[in-house]
Specification:
425 residues; mainly alpha; two-stranded antiparallel ribbon; 15 helices; 2 strands; 2% strand
Length: 425
């Protein structure tokens, strides 16, 4: 507490042997940890909406992800050279630059492993959003992350979180998964009914590729509402056809199994990156030599982001020339000249990078199991999905009831997980 009685969010420790009297900039209070998690929740729930927006406008996901990857790494560098270098380091808590030359490679490997699985998960979700939808994809992946990742973090953190509160929160996420699956099923049935009704006015087999529909809607912008008196309204069959004609990843006529498979793969990857980062910063398996300090959250996040960046660059350059899911081929030259939506993609990378950094900063103070409360990010993503993309517009009453149930359960879940936070000794 400070002298005004206001909880201190960031603690700057005193150190007697340094002239400045300052050590590294660290989040140590429970209030500060929760503030970090709430801000991370907003950031991590917003960047998927931006990438979804660009895909719906027709930008190739390979181009978008390459831009996103650059600023995602930039965020980690900024955090390392600011928070990680404020004040003077100590033997127990060295600054970022000092740790780069220390013999801490076992912890570095854990951090980089976390970056690899996060990169795979983020790359997979970019394709899953097109097939399954932004809201449902985020619900499924986040819930898998909580069920697997939070349980692992609870035991890695030596049970510093309150189990009687933590695991009911995990149960709330599982219930939300059930609601989310029901929302997806109900909304898919609603869309099928709309398209079937629309097809009654078209020739058999021409509903999706109808030439008149393509000509009517090709010049319209789904998200920015550009000028046309015939702009399709959210939730109508015309809107669904317009979206399919413009988007980069074509989904009509493809089964749901591929989308769900990609989604579950992404969720499994997401469930592993936080425990790996936990091991990198706290060395629960005692892999470091005696006298070697643990990686600071800033140093670990730097290595984490390096591996995430390298893998993303390799995979996406490969996908430029050997695209998946029937996407058109591209090239590095085409990518460099594609400025349509680039600034949005760069912004998404910054949001994701700072969001992950804040999550780890909060987790180091209050426990990584409680920090997994940011997996309630579908609350934010669903808000953007409804506001920007018209998800669930003109759906049935059943869909709306299930949607409210899903969002309500997520609100309960994030509150319960935050209430379970402890304090690392």
């Amino acid at each position: 507490m400070d002298y005004l009685g206001i909880p201190t969010i960031v603690s700057i420790e005193e150190g007697g042997f340094v002239s400045s009297g300052l050590k590294m900039y660290l989040v140590e209070s429970k209030g500060g940890a929760i503030a970090c998690m709430l801000l991370a929740l907003f950031f991590l729930g917003t960047w998927p909406a931006i990438l979804t927006l660009l895909e719906r406008r027709g930008r190739l996901p390979q181009h978008t992800y390459l831009d996103y990857t650059i600023t995602n790494l930039l965020a980690a560098v900024i955090i390392a050279f600011t928070f990680g270098e404020i004040g003077n380091g100590t033997i127990e808590k060295p600054n970022f630059l000092n740790q780069l030359s220390q013999d801490n490679w076992p912890s570095v490997m854990f951090a980089m492993a976390g970056g690899i699985v996060l990169s795979l998960g983020n790359l997979a979700t970019q394709y899953a959003w097109a097939f399954v939808g932004l809201s449902v994809t985020e619900v499924i992946t986040s819930s898998i992350t909580v069920v697997i990742g939070t349980t692992l973090n609870y035991f890695l953190d030596d049970k510093i979180n309150k189990a009687e509160i933590l695991f009911p929160g995990v149960g709330c996420f599982l219930i939300a998964v059930c609601f989310g699956s029901a929302v997806h099923s109900s909304n898919a049935a609603d869309n099928k009914k709309k398209l079937t009704s629309f097809s009654d006015d078209t020739k058999d087999g021409e509903m999706i590729n109808d030439a008149h529909a393509s000509e009517t809607y090709a010049k319209k912008d789904l998200e920015n509402g550009s000028a046309s008196n015939e702009k399709a309204k959210f939730g109508t069959a015309h809107f669904l056809i317009e979206l399919e004609n413009k988007r980069a990843i074509k989904v009509f006529g493809k089964g749901t199994l591929i989308g769900l498979s990609i989604t579950f793969f992404a969720g499994f990857c997401f469930s592993l990156f936080s425990p790996a980062f936990n091991l990198a910063t706290n060395d629960q398996w005692n892999t470091l030599k005696d006298g070697v300090p643990h990686l600071s959250v800033y140093t670990a996040f730097f290595y984490f982001s390096i591996s995430c960046f390298v893998l993303a660059i390799i995979l996406n350059i490969t996908f430029l020339y050997k695209p998946v899911l029937n996407l058109p081929k591209s090239s590095i030259k085409a990518y460099l000249s594609d400025w349509e939506g680039r600034w949005w993609a760069l912004l998404a990378g910054l949001l994701c990078g700072f969001g992950n950094g804040l999550q780890f900063m909060g987790g180091q103070a209050a426990g990584y199991a409680a920090a997994d409360a940011v997996q309630a990010l579908p609350l934010v993503s669903t808000f953007w999905g409804i506001l920007l993309f018209g998800e669930y517009r003109r759906s049935s009453r059943k869909t709306y009831v299930l949607l409210i149930g899903m969002l309500s359960m997520f609100i309960v879940a994030v509150g319960v997980l935050m209430a379970s936070s402890g304090h690392r000794k």
